Amino acid sequence: MFDIPESVKKLFDTFPLTTYPAIPKTTSGNDEFIEEKKFYFENEKQSQISTNASFSLGVHNVVEFKGQDGKRKYIPSDPVSLGQALILCHKNKLKLPTTSSTNRSCNSIMKVSFHASPDKQLPILIEDDKQSRTIRTISSIIETVAKSNFQKHPYLDAELLVLNDFIDLKLFDLWILCLLNENIDRFDEIFDIDSKLDLSFVAKSLVINNIYSEVEHWRAFRTRNPNLFDYMELLLSTN
Amino acid sequence: MSLDHDDMLDRLASSPTGGHQDLSKSEKELQSLMQEKQELMMKQSKDFMEELFKQNSTQPIKVKNVQITNGHSFRDNFLQAQFSPLLNSKQPVSLQEFLKQLSVVENLMVGIHPVVGTITTQSIFGRRTVPDNGACISVVPIFNTLPVKKFYAKTGTNIGNGEGDGYIQFQLKNIFGGAENISFDAVTGTKTSSSYLLNYNQPVFNNADYISENSFSTNTRKWDWIQSNVKTFGFSNKIYTQFDGPVNHEFTVENYWKVLENLNSKSIDVYTQSGSHFKNSLIYNVSYDTRNNKHLPTQGKFLRFGVEYNGLFKFTTSPFIKSVFESQFVYAFPKNWYTSVILTGKSGFLFPLNKTTSVLDRFYIGGPNDVRSFTLNGLGPKDYNSSIGGDMFINGGLSFISKIPRVSSESNFKLHNFVNFGKLVPMDKSAGFVRNFKSVVGDFSLSYGFGILYNHPMARFELNFVLPLVVHDRDYVRKGLQYGIGVSFL
């Protein structure tokens, strides 16, 4: 193989002659903008040890909800993200975020657009440690939950496995069907559509159509149910 | 830049060398003599006209009327407006003044896009001159215009700014006889997965100095530096001037819906800002340009100041005020040095009217056409390998352009030595003006390089050997060879 002559390598290694520290990547205003989108989980216990690692669950939006203890809590606005938020709470000994935080953890629920996800589906799980950041898509989260909870004893946990699949697939499909067919009153709230867009019919229509154009592809819903769409297209063409 | 397939074929077909191959020696000699005769006649004619103009520079001239060939392509009121500089003067004018007016009209005619190859002739002192009141001469200028092609379609390829693409273009020209054009472009390429542009332009109130341009576009582009796609859909309305003088203005209203789609970025700025953005802005640009060539000037100055206000409607996603200043000064050394110096400087400032700015609106610097020896948009703030852009920047360069030894000074190939610098930072609204100003001034990233460049009429090509001298940690540097193609360089 061709080797770079030592003298050339030396010359190239000499440059740059001076290196300044990195340019700061954020500002206080930007941090504030990001923090507004975050809702921190509560630690179950006051003395819970905080680690360097943290995670954020990226969801469409959050809605306020009054818990059994009378506290107002934030929950994800869609059932799929709510399911994942509850699993995360259970596994990490956390409580749902509240309006009046008393024992805030470093983990959070974060409002993001579905366009933030590489596969345009939410929720996503953003895992941070000191060195790196990993973004897990919903498929990856579901796979990890199934692997770590059911694969060790598949026969013993058969009933739970069926139940898990039922939630992940059947209830998910039902949710997509609802989105596509029902006239959902709180659609804007579910997908965090800016209320300022009410001022422009065109702008709002663009955003809503953009959501609908993606919804049918979530978890390959359209591919798994082609007859449903053929039938709907037939209905539209005959009308 | 554009490399049109059909244009290239035309050029090859009309290549003079191709025609010479089958000629005998005596035929070649005859052809050469005829060419010499033609050149001699042209020179004599030119000398005669120059002498005539010199002797009669103060001769009073009166324009009785103006004639135009192929005038049926244009509306009467449109032509009247174009010829008004010649026809409106009721008093006789000097020949010098007449020629000036003639050149204004000629420039107007050429400036109107659909008038292909306007040829202006004037029959002064010829058959059509009529003596009027003794000393005053009446003249009838005749404008020979080529017939306008109404419909035009072409395909081609574009190369430049680190990307390549293919396009198909349809044009309908001079639709209503007043230089109104519609064009439709469809492009697909390495960075632009799809782009469709519908453009309508026309002179404002028949005045070819003012052009109104309205375009509707939809496209999807890869923003590799933030590992994302950006879909854009919307329209812009622009009025710009094309005065013969150095100062020109441009006024634009833009309304766009942009969707930022994260593909692989791990930057928190990218995934919190992903989704729909509505941009509704007013933009004003003023420029002063005396350069003799836009791609590779050898003398002249260029100054541009632009300001943009985004926030015309309440639903605008990230309102801001943005300003950009650009300057270029070119000095030529004494003629026998065959060297010129180009000094370029740019700066920009983006002020958010909300808490922060959008990654779609921020400035990005660095690259083979910008601060060389850094990768495309490789300077400024980084977050998990994404260049997330900044709100303030200053960059510039000093270039020495000289002829290649033992190569004609007329050659389009030149030697190039340069120093580039630049800095891009975020703006902290809470920090105050002085601290923000200090953060962008000083501690610049700096690079040096040399190479060869080729100045094609459509664009400039550069192949340089570059080395970064001073960098910031996390700047994306490029050592060794770097090539650049484009129309605008530092």
UniProtKB/TrEMBL annotation, chain A:
Q: What's one Pfam family the UniProt record gives for this protein? A: SAM35
**Which InterPro entries does UniProt cross-reference here?**
SAM35
User: Would you tell me the protein name for this molecule?
Assistant: Uncharacterized protein
UniProtKB/TrEMBL annotation, chain B:
Which terms under GO biological process does the entry name?
A: protein insertion into mitochondrial outer membrane
- What is the superkingdom listed in this entry's lineage? Eukaryota
Keywords attached to this Swiss-Prot or TrEMBL record, sorted alphabetically, are:
Membrane, Transmembrane, Transmembrane beta strand
Residue ranges, compositional bias (Basic and acidic residues) = 1-10
Q: Name one GO cellular component term.
A: mitochondrial outer membrane
Q: Name one Pfam family in it.
A: Omp85
* Keyword field contains Membrane: yes
UniProt key word Membrane: yes
Where is the region Disordered? 1-28
Which locations, inside or outside the cell, does it occupy?
Mitochondrion outer membrane
In terms of InterPro entries, this protein maps to:
Bac_surfAg_D15, D15-like
Q: How does it sit in the membrane?
A: Multi-pass membrane protein
Query: Where is this chain primarily localised?
Result: mitochondrion
Domain Bacterial surface antigen (D15) positions: 174-489
Q: Return the similarity comment.
A: Belongs to the SAM50/omp85 family.
Q: What is the protein's name according to its record?
A: Predicted cell surface protein homologous to bacterial outer membrane proteins
Q: Which organism is it from?
A: Scheffersomyces stipitis (strain ATCC 58785 / CBS 6054 / NBRC 10063 / NRRL Y-11545) (Yeast)
Q: Which gene encodes it?
A: SAM52
